[in-house]
Task: inverse folding
């Protein structure tokens, strides 16, 4: 599963056209979670035909997300949640026993869901905007800056608790700079009929 989570993060980087913004803590509480049956099914990225998303119901209010890019497959957990009337998706690895040491740090990816029908439209929190904001004022949000091989490859990992993350999201819901590079998933009716 560790390989699957890292594959999902790498694949998400390609989807989100930039660095992947992750959090150690979830972006939602159990009271925020919603389930939308219309999301269940198979979807294809409108801009990358070899990228497929399959959502299956898992438990009462979560989804098992199988994410495929070419020959690489990742299976993760997804939760839809509402915050101030806006829909979001938190994508994270599944709970399991790790056989390697040290165990990997859990991470959560965030997408803002702007539409569920007839297509699914999502947009990530803009990593570059947030990184610049935190460089200017590191007290805005608890975080760590993970260094890459080059300074421009460093990425932000959020470490704040869920309440802090949600307060930050609420504050920036209407900030166009915070939400960029959205993408669209189209229902894959060819695979659904097979």
Result:
């Amino acid at each position: 599963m560790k390989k699957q989570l890292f594959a999902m993060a790498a694949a998400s980087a390609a989807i989100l056209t930039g660095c992947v913004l992750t959090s150690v803590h979830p972006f939602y509480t159990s009271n925020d979670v919603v389930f939308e049956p219309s999301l269940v099914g198979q979807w294809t990225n409108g801009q990358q035909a070899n990228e497929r998303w399959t959502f299956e119901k898992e438990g009462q209010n979560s989804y098992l997300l199988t994410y495929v890019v070419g020959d690489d497959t990742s299976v993760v957990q997804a939760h839809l949640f509402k915050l101030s009337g806006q829909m979001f998706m938190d994508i994270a690895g599944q709970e399991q026993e790790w056989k390697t040491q040290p165990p990997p740090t859990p991470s959560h990816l965030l997408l803002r869901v702007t539409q569920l029908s007839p297509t699914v439209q999502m947009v990530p929190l803009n990593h570059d905007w947030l990184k610049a904001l935190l460089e200017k004022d590191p007290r805005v949000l608890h975080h760590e800056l993970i260094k890459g091989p080059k300074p421009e490859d460093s990425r932000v990992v959020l470490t704040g608790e869920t309440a802090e993350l949600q307060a930050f999201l609420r504050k920036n819901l209407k900030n166009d700079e915070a939400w960029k590079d959205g993408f669209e998933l189209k229902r894959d009716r060819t695979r659904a009929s097979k």
